[in-house]
Amino acid sequence: MAAGCAQVPAPCPCPKPGPAADARYEAVGFAALPGWRTAPVAASLPAFVAGCARVPEGHALQQACAAARLLPAGDDAAARDFFEQAFVAYAIVAPDGARDGLVTGYYEPVLEGSRSRSARHAHPVYGVPDDLVVVDLAGQYPELRGMRLRGRLNGRRLQPYFSRGEIDERNGSFSAPVIAWVADPIDLFFLQIQGSGQIRLDSGERIRVGFAEQNGHPYRSLGRHLVERGEMPLEQASMQGIKAWAAANPERLKEALGHNASYVFFRELPAVDGPIGAQGVALEAGYSIAVDPRHVPLGAPVFLATTYPLSEAPLERLVTAQDTGGAIRGAVRADFFWGSGAEAGELAGRMRQTGRLWILWPRGATLPRPLP
Predict the structure, then answer these.
(1) Could you tell me the pTM of the whole model?
(2) Which residues contact residue 263 at a Cβ distance below 8 angstroms, ignoring those fewer than 6 apart?
(3) What is the per-residue pLDDT across 125-147, written as a single tens digit (0 to 9) for each?
(4) What angle do CA 286, 287, 293 make, to 5 degrees?
(5) 303-319 pLDDT, tens per residue?
(6) Closest CA to 265 of 75, 60, 124
(7) How far is 68 from 284, CA to CA, in rounded Å?
(8) 167 torsion bin: left (phi>0), alpha (psi -120 to 50), beta (else)
(9) Three-state DSSP class for 176?
(10) Are the C-beta atoms of 275 and 208 separated by less than 8 Å?
């Protein structure tokens, strides 16, 4: 997920990060949240309430969830009063003391495709291969909770799984189920970065796909690679800039893509209102974010203060932590979900802003920790 271009880190549920140094949570009054009095708080409720379905019995958020379900729709005053009465706002401070962090954007791409291979649709969207072995280390080493090894068996030995270059070299004959075939390899690459998307079939039908597994290789930024090779200046290393470079250099694209050995395998998802995030609910455009769950628990309301892409215009609103991503690391770090399609992609591809985060946690509850 993440920044296959230097500018578009997005949730790709790659191997989960291990232990991290503790962030600090500093209680503040709601008046300290920039734009809190004018933010459209009622519009934030649907995302929070949707995530409540995944909150386990007895969790600190449960009582607040029950109250939120009873609030009238569209009433900003009632919603603002609810959050102020039910929650305490905590400024999130990184272990090194930083209060400002990186806010990027992601979206759900829509690709043109087909269920069958053709001269136009020649690039496979793979499901999980049968020979991919995933080893969860937590059973043997509790301190490595969330860490997984991925590989394939060679006799009795586990060896690294095939890299992106090795998979692409098989030209569609790789031993994995094919969900669909798409027309553009760079669009497929960004689908893997985003971690989910839609495929518009030639029949007019749409299917939604989401992350299922990953080949175990670490993610490496294509944008950074192109900048380091002198192919483009840093300020052009956005999704749009990388697509323009790919269109101008089709004969060099395969080699460039191979720089990122990481490869994502998909599963077909039910037709719901949005892509499914790591919390297990459909993401809400403009009101769901991806976070580092080592610092921000999924399901928690988070007040975000940043700016719109390529702008100084404030973007200040209450969102819900509902997703994660391989490039979303750090306490003051968020990936803002813009929605589906080309317009959302334009915004996501240009978003690389500085921002601050405040987590809202129920009054009287222990300071926030990740959901189990």
Answers:
(1) 0.77
(2) 162, 163, 164, 167, 192, 214, 215, 217
(3) 999 999 999 988 767 777 666 67
(4) 120
(5) 999 999 989 999 999 99
(6) 124
(7) 17
(8) alpha
(9) coil
(10) yes
* Residue type at 323 in one-letter notation: D
Task: Tell me the C-alpha distance between 63 and 143, whole Å.
Answer: 31
Would you say 144 and 18 are in contact if contact means Cβ atoms under 8 Å apart? yes
Contacts 24+ apart (CB under 8 A), 133-139: 133/158, 134/213
User: DSSP state, 30?
Assistant: G
Tell me the one-letter amino acid at 285: A
Q: CB-hemisphere CA count at 13 Å for 207? A: 18
- 256 Cβ contact partners less than 8 Å away, ≥ 6 residues apart: 222, 225, 226, 246, 249
CB of 93 within 8 A of CB of 25?
yes
From the CB of residue 69, how many other CB atoms can be counted at a distance below 10 Å?
Answer: 11
Structure tokens at 332: 């003051």
